[in-house]
Amino acid sequence: MRAKRFDCSYGCSVEATLDVIGGKWKSVILFHLLGGAKRFGELQRMLPGVTQRMLTLQLRELEEDGVVHREIYRQIPPKVEYSLTEYGQTLESILCQMREWGEGFVGRNAGNKAGV
Predict the structure, then answer these.
(1) CA–CA distance from 90 to each of 6, 33, 46, 102 (Å)?
(2) Which of 19, 24, 48, 54 is the most exposed place for a label (fewest CB within 10 A)?
(3) Cβ neighbours of residue 66 closer than 8 Å, sequence gap 6 or more
């Protein structure tokens, strides 16, 4: 999906949104950043299924898109924190709606598996 970054020929605005927040990890990363700045290790613990490489790539893409800010603190050992930019914070309502929908979906499927 990243190839569209430079030609801006999206078929619709939903496609543009999914280009930024789509994929298995980006929305989850953004959701966790709603609670405030996180260090890389914190995010990795919150997402036990993600590899270090994938988390790094997803954070870089979110940073390139202007929704995540990477702050490097010049200290020993180096400290890096990730947070939502002001623009990234505009995704809060979308992410919360995704959470609510997901909770309903999980509940619905749990009922279906129980024979309801």
Answers:
(1) 23, 12, 22, 20
(2) 48
(3) 85, 87, 88
Q: N- to C-terminal Cα distance for the chain?
A: 39
* Spatial separation of the C-alpha atoms in residues 55 and 41, rounded to whole Å: 10
Alpha carbon distance 42, 113 (integer Å)? 33
- The string of pLDDT tens digits covering residues 52-87 is 999 999 999 999 999 999 999 999 888 999 999 999
Whose tokens are 């990795």? That residue is 44
Domains of the chain: 2-111 (1.10.10.10)
b/e burial code for range 59-95 (CB count within 10 A of at least 16 → b): bebbeebebbbeeeeeeeeeeebbebeeebeebeeeb
